[in-house]
Amino acid sequence: MIRINCPFCGERDHSEFTYGGDGTIDYPALDASIEDWHEAVFQRENIRGMQTETWHHVNGCRAWLLVERDTMTHEIRSVRAAHPGMAKVLEKAI
Amino acid sequence: MTAIRLEKRGRIDPNSPLTFTWDGKKLAGYEGDTLASALLANNEQVLGRSFKYHRPRGIMSAGVEESGAIVSIGEGNRHEANVKATTLELYEGLVANGQNAWPNVRTDVGAINGLFSRFFSAGFYYKTFMGLPPFEWGSGTWLWMQYEKLIRKAAGMGTASREPDPDCYDHAHAFCDVLVVGSGPAGLHAAHSAAKAGKDVILVEQDFELGGDYLNQMSGEAESKRVSLIKALEKAGAHIMTRTTAFGLYDYGTAGLLERVTDHHSIKSKFQPRQRFWTVRAGATILATGALERTFAFGNNDRPGIMTVSSAKTYLNRYGVLAGRRIVVSTNNDSAYSTAAELAAAGAHTVFLDARESTNKANTSMLESAGAELRNGFAPLEAAGSKGIHGVQLASVDGKGWRASEYESCDLLLVSGGWSPVVNLLSHRGVKPVWNAEQACFVPAKSDEAIAMAGSAAGIWDTARCEQSGEIAVKQLLGSENTGSLPKPGDLKSKIKPVYEISVPGKKIKSFVDPQHDVTADDIRLAHQEGFVSVEHLKRYTTLGMATDQGKVGNVIGLALMADALGKEIPEVGTTTFRPPYTPVSIGALTGRNTGTHFKPLRRTPMHEWNLRNNAVMTDAGLWHRPWYFPAKGETISEAYVREATISRQTVGICDVSSLGKIAVQGPDASEFLNRIYTNAFAKLAIGKARYGIMLRDDGIVLDDGTTWRLSENDFLMTTTTAHAGKVMVWLEELLQVRWPDLKVHVTSVSDQWGAVSIAGPKARDTIATCLENANSISAENLPFMGVKPIRLKGEIDGLIARISFSGELAYEVYVPAGYGDAMMDLLWPAVKAAGGCLYGLEALGALRIEKGHVTGAELDGRVSIDDAGLGSMASKKKSYIGSSLQQRPEFLREDRPRLVGIFPKDRKQTFNGGSILCRSEKVSGHGDGWITAVTHSPALGHWIGIGYMSGGHELWTGKNVIAADPVRDSEVEVEIVSPHMFDAKGERMHD
Description:
heterodimer, A: alpha+beta, two-stranded antiparallel ribbon, B: alpha+beta, 7-stranded mixed beta sheet, 6-stranded mixed beta sheet
């Protein structure tokens, strides 16, 4: 029953979105070692509290978003486009 | 119990009589009745049978907390079980029946269970499924399996209809500033306050009448207040919903409501939904959900003729039914007095027992003037009677306990053990209620969200203060100034005396805590003896509070008894968490319109109608309908696909492949992007060329495969499998937006923009050429293998052609804009026919690809590496790509990994099943050494073949005895493991 304020479309029901995953991962270069990739793909924090995660507005504008959400309360602190260029443009537009 | 309907009493409409049927008997009631009040007025006492012991049960309450009067209603496909008679609005022609009894609830053979009650004690199911106590006798034996069937048959209450539901259900959404749940004194005042302040208000009431406790009052004053408030609310524009239950509260001020739209109609409308499932988003929520009266546990406290005090008041004042003539009222608090006085005044002989040793003056004189007899320090010990009561053995206070006292004859026993505020909805939000020892009840704690409780739901008992609390709660939520403070819980003149169970030492009695699930006070103690200390475990072990009423009345009594057994206070034992729904919600309402063909969207290719006109039999492929086969007259599916596959290899076949995923990948960095996501090289793909590519996930597992066509320097058309089109699109978007935002690439799904056919077979080129404006444009020189180019079909239809092959034949895919799909087929099909060719469907396509060992979703099942799928040569060693690192994980490098193989039956006349497990012949058990993913009859080879995975690959298994075992369908076939490339292994045919 979460509502996400998509920077492009406005406030929408969570059913328009799909959950991506941890939004803080720095993916290693494609030729990085197995260990680095293992770390990035399999090692996840299970955060209780605020976490940054990716959501996809799949039944909307199809933007990938970075959402700061409290995993305990579902409170959403911030939403921005994951693409830095897009985020910049949208911030300016507001 | 000898109930009578009083004249000129209550809110029923004496001018609107209704007839209904109870267990085959025609009875009369009135507009405004519930089924329970009408049955009561007709002196029907035994309305149900209990869950385990089949004890006779009657009306115990007048609301949603009902545990006794649970019946089945309706007939045929509208049959519904476990309906509470106390909340069911009576309508003309209602058909209701008793349940969980044979032959009927009045004479039930199952009552014999009561004699064996010591076997049905707490944990009955856990114990019996382990075997018969004390030595787990019979566990695991044949006899035991039969016994289990009997238990399964006996378990459960009513039976559901096995016919499809004839009704439809709607989903609806609404928004408001303030949602008020409950329309009693607190709710009406809260809603009125909010509406007056200009707020958008939704008021929800589960009953068919607004007013809550106002409806139970005798005084005209309550009624006029109710009417004027409703008028004011309507005038202020509040949205009022009766027959609507707020069954759950969720995040962000969301409430789930169930509106019963036509349940109370005699004739069900064709054009209205039966129920509506509402998702309401409220800025603020007021829960004026009231309180439920508890009883206490004493001997035979479940007998018909025993109910709560407040329900007798409801039946008297709202429905005009005096439920008994000789009444014993038992209480431990002040709330029962006015009811007793009203009952006495209505002509009932009333004996009033107060467990407390004194009564204040006002209450004493109220009873006196009504002619009721007051006895302090008394309570019922055991009710006498079976299908109704004829008296009650009393107990009198003896120090901290009780001792047996005199017998009092009566036909109705009313009990008030205190009140439990309905904190359920707030509990859904994770707010645990707090035990208030003074009031002997759980009261709501404060919520951090914009949710407030008001009225008796907040433990406030006095009507005037309930009204006040509704107004203040709204003002506080809306942030008004000078709201005053909310009234504190509890405001009756004398303190309640907590009483949960009446018993005397040495006397064996059966006293129920949760009558609906036949949980007794002894069961709670037994659970404690057996080591259950957590209330959550207690609940599951005894099934306390797990019946359809979800422990609305029994939970607090159960907790109190557990606390007593543990020697603790109630708050130390805890409370069980209430979860949605508050009252049962039909599955139909949850499903809404998403049933049958509306369960999921249907996707049709641009040539759908064309395929149907040409005799296609369709099959589901994900959301798509695709041609399965095109039977000639009298052909079976097997005959049809074998013919289609044969002709496609001999001359030419044509197949609709529009459902393939198509993604336009465009931009200056498009080739770099493709080079990163495909395992093979794409950077140097020439314009006008297609390439087959494999994509991996980050973890090195194969994601999808398909061809990508370079249309110009910066313009690529990617094709994906039908199944993974959506997934791949999402993946590309994620990579471009989240991971590689510096890449200048744009992706667009164009799956629906193109109509596509595959034309395969030795005569494919010649056939297509006859349909082109320029036949020469696709000659072997002008369009070599894996070439792509724009073409113009006759009739000036512009499209694309690619020389690619899935079937292993000389083959082309022709794409035209979706709107030209039909026109393209009308052009190509006559040419194919003229060449002796045919249409082919998914089944023949499968046969052709299995012969070639080409993989699809059945093989790329999210568990296999690129090497497993036999595509290791597609993994570039010169570059890095998504998954290139983790595909080197040790697990993926094991020699015994499953590898793609072909499968032949040893005896070529035999066949075997898809999904079979491949085992070495000396060990046909367990998970085997591999599995079969797909099976077909191969026209090219003349026998059945399969494709699948086998540990270590086919070379390892040459000459070994392997069994294709299908234990589910009981078949074992000897097979040979061969190379997956079973036909034209060198691929000469498609290069012609």
